[in-house]
Specification:
heterodimer, A: alpha/beta, four-stranded mixed sheet, 5 strands, about 30% helix, B: about 160 residues, six-stranded parallel sheet, 6 strands, globular
């Protein structure tokens, strides 16, 4: 048959025609060849997987959803997602009135990882801090992305990621002189504290970790 | 009828591999959902003839709801349930039509569940052409499929 519904064209898309047209072919969820018929030939399996993975990775930037807060002039960029993004935003909004150039990049898409977006917003920052409530998975991804050869556009050699995990409060201090916040400043509004945090959300721990990091307690 | 006017939609299982063996527009989908995909095909191109071969596990347990509601909606398509009383390809699990007293990989001390009458269920749900035959009665099967292909309504056989 000279019709190949699953042979990618030059633009990487498939020429699949409508059912009811002159071309008859098979559609299946099994690994298939360029005619759509099931196959277990290693070459064909590899080709199909490559095609499917590339389709996602080459369009990761298009699929990414994210929100930005105060990033226009930010020297310190917080990268966060999910519920911990709310804590991070709280930090940003309480530090902005004190003149700190800090902003937040909230990721709403984690996979495929939006590397283009991260590079765009973090390469001009002096410090990048990843605020996440897990084992630091996204911090590693951000580090890899920002430190990748050729990724730097601002000429700065290294940025340091920080991550805080529930129960760990682990953190890494950024290099001195690379920005950051004066440790002598109070980072929280006195009207709000002391405050009882619910045991489930972890906001207290994240906030505690952030405050410790910038006030030099940790 | 031209082959270009026929769409065969199947789910998962021994029965559902049949779509890959036919030279129609063939759509091999997910377990139990063949009728749902077929509904989509029929809605988008009502002029096409849609045939949906399924197994007993595919059609009646995993796809039981799709089966009932495809019949209730009286969608113009042909549903064929091939009953071998077992989930064969997935590993010999008992199906809704295995019947009591039969052994299966998931019923090592034999099955305790009653089967049910699928013809009664299809009729009650609103299917307009319902027939049952066996693979032994080849002439009758061909005859039923021929008659079914002339009826414009949701059809079910076997």
């Amino acid at each position: 048959v000279d019709y190949h519904p699953y042979l990618p064209r030059e633009d990487g898309r498939l020429p699949m025609s409508d059912f009811g047209g002159v071309h008859r072919y098979n559609v299946t969820g099994l690994v298939h060849d360029m005619w759509g018929f099931p196959s277990d030939n290693p070459k064909i399996v590899h080709g199909l997987l490559r095609h499917l993975v590339d389709k996602i990775e080459n369009n990761a930037g298009q699929m990414a959803r994210y929100r930005t807060f105060y990033l226009e002039d930010a020297e310190t960029v917080l990268v966060s997602f999910g519920s911990s993004a709310r804590s991070a935003l709280h930090i940003v909004e309480s530090l902005r009135p004190r003149g700190q150039k800090i902003g937040l990049l909230e990721l709403q898409t984690l996979w495929p990882f939006p590397a283009e977006v991260i590079r765009h917003y973090c390469n001009t920052a002096k410090t990048t801090v990843v605020v996440e409530m897990n084992m630091g998975q996204v911090c590693q991804m951000v580090k890899t992305t920002v430190d990748a050869p050729g990724a730097g556009v601002s000429g700065q050699p290294h940025r340091r990621g920080v991550h805080h995990t529930h129960g760990h409060q682990e953190h890494t201090a950024p290099d001195q002189g690379q920005g950051g916040i004066d440790g002598s400043q109070r980072l929280y509004p006195s009207a709000v504290f002391p405050h009882l945090w619910c045991s489930g959300c972890g906001h207290g721990i994240v906030l505690n970790g952030l405050i410790r990091r910038w006030s030099g307690w940790g | 009828m031209s082959r270009n006017e026929i769409v065969m939609v199947s789910g998962i299982g021994c029965s559902s591999r049949i779509s890959g063996y036919m030279d129609f527009h063939t759509l091999h989908t997910i377990h139990g959902r063949a009728l749902a995909f077929a509904t989509g095909v029929k809605l988008s191109k009502p002029e096409l003839n849609v045939i949906v071969p399924m197994g007993d596990g595919d059609a009646l347990s995993i796809g039981g709801n799709h089966f009932i509601h495809a019949a209730r909606r009286n969608i113009d398509m042909t549903a064929i349930v091939m009953n071998n009383r077992i989930y064969g390809m997935t590993g010999g699990q008992y199906s809704p039509l295995t019947g009591p007293g039969m052994m299966a990989t998931t019923a090592p001390y034999t099955n305790i569940d009653q089967g049910f009458d699928v013809v009664e269920m299809a009729t009650a749900a609103g299917a307009t052409f319902v027939a049952r035959t066996t693979t032994y009665h080849v002439q009758q099967m061909a005859d039923i499929i021929r008659r079914r292909s002339c009826t414009r309504a949701f059809r079910w056989s076997r």
